[in-house]
Description:
The structure holds 2 protein chains of 2 kinds.
Chain A: E1 2-6, E2 9-11, H1 14-17, E3 19-20, E4 25-26, E5 32-34, H2 36-50, E6 57-63, H3 69-78, E7 82-86, H4 96-109, E8 114-118, H5 129-137, E9 141-151, E10 154-160, E11 164-171, E12 174-178, H6 190-196, E13 201-204, E14 223-230, E15 238-241, H7 244-257
Parallel strand pairs in A: 1-6, 1-8, 6-7, 7-13, 8-12, 9-12
Antiparallel strand pairs in A: 2-5, 3-4, 9-10, 10-11
Helix pairs in contact in A: 3-6, 4-5
Chain B: H1 2-8, E1 13-18, H2 22-32, E2 35-40, H3 49-63, E3 67-71, H4 74-87, E4 90-95, E5 97-101, E6 104-111, E7 116-122, E8 127-131, E9 147-149, E10 162-168, E11 181-185, H5 192-205, E12 208-211, H6 213-218, E13 238-242, H7 248-254, E14 259-264, E15 277-280, H8 283-300
Amino acid sequence: MRIGVCVKAVPADPRERGFDPATLRLDRTGELVLNGADAHAVACACELRAAGAGADEIIAISVGPPGAEGAVRYALAMGADRAVLVSDPLLEGSDLLATGRVLARVIAEEACELVLFGQQGGDSNGALLWGAVAVRLDRPSISRATEIALDGGGVRVRRQTEQGFELVAAPLPCLVAVASGVAEPRPPTFRELKRAGDKPRRLALAAELGLDPGEVGAAGSRTTVLALGGVPRREGGRLVDGDPEEAAAEILELLVARGVV
Amino acid sequence: MLARARALSDAAAGIVLGDGVEEAAREAAARSGARVLLADDAALGDGSPRPRIEVLARLVATAGYDTVLLATTTSATDVAAGLSARLEAGLNWDLLDLERDGAELVGVRRALQDTVSVRVGWRGSPRLALLRPGAHQPVAAATAGAVERLEVTIESPEPSVTVLERGTEQAPGPSLAEAGIIVAGGRGVGSRQGFAALEELAEELGGIVGVSLPIVEIGWYPASRQVGQSGRIVAPAVYLACGISGAIQHRIGMERSATVVAINSDPAAAIFELADLGVVGDLHEIVPHLTRLVRARRAGAPSA
């Protein structure tokens, strides 16, 4: 059985790079690294393969600029068996909708039965993609998984909910977004990184996946970035810097003044 | 959310989806004065996104709504993403604000750890938006809106997700909402042992430990201890933030605290903007010192 893991290459230093003022998109010309949440998903896939239960191949799937290759190679070094990187100038400016189309196409073509995504905070940018891909593929999907096991022809998952947890089961094929607690990624050794270069990597263009130029990139997107601006900084209170004992004493003084100690 | 939608359009209606949620729909209609649609069906009871997506997609298609607003909660996020693919509709998420610009809508969100404000728009309709709840003070309506029951027909999509067991993880002791003092820890705490020091301080202060989202995701604390937009909104007498950078989503959960003390090794951390007292330093040294000082004061103080 094949496990697909969707991974994203993100700027190593996004705050320094910032946005490209011409395109209003994140500047991805600098160093790109494997997204932290996705590293947990790759580690989770490796644990499932190690546990037997029929998982025998892990495919890292990524959509990104040519510079994403380093992040893909990192996923291979962590234990993925092969990778598919869809990199095409036509994809620039893709939003959730357009990127979802590309991923759905790759997942279907590669016949991945279980697809893992790294779940970022419900608050952050990557928390949505898998939900769109699941609907496009018409497959069941489970979010915020903290434990996952293959079980016959399906998965059993413990997931976080707003109130607590749920134990759920779903048949394969399905999609699971994993929380970072699901598996701890181990940084690959130098040897593993070196060997990753020899693992099979497929580079694909949108057309090779049967995608129309109108379905991808800015043309296939339904959201736009209009403008960027600064964020007004609020004036904070007193800032102290120095000896831990003095700092602790200052905090105590405030707690006493507020009547809580 | 309804107040926000009504500010954008008089024709805005609410929708409540669930199983046995008629009372919630009536309350929403009474408080907002808006028309509220009710999709009440056993198939909508377990919180799984697919049937909700079905109902909303059909409603948007038949009633011709051009905009759908959802509050940013974890379950609504799941629904919004799927709905976007089903309707081929643009989705802007994590919006702090939504305003009208002529015939267009413009959303505002933050990026790059709150250093950049991004104005976003939609191409075509329907437009989907995940919007931060609670930014708009609900205005009490003079007259209650009507509740209309929707016919719910869900073509059960092939075998799907089955819930085998469900549990609530309410940590013992006082809840975050009741706590007068919250000692909160974030990624900067670094380890479980680091949290043991926070627990000790919280106990000494008669407070409780709260955490930021990443800590819940690692699995060190249950979701019931999470402070933030997707967790609990708290307003204790003292909020002591340790190793919390202060992302907007966290700040939403604690900015109403009476007094905020922040300890962080990064002098540029956004949490310092909210702090009455900010300490730039190593929380692993400062927290144990503080615990000792509090303990010493308690022991030495004449009993009242």
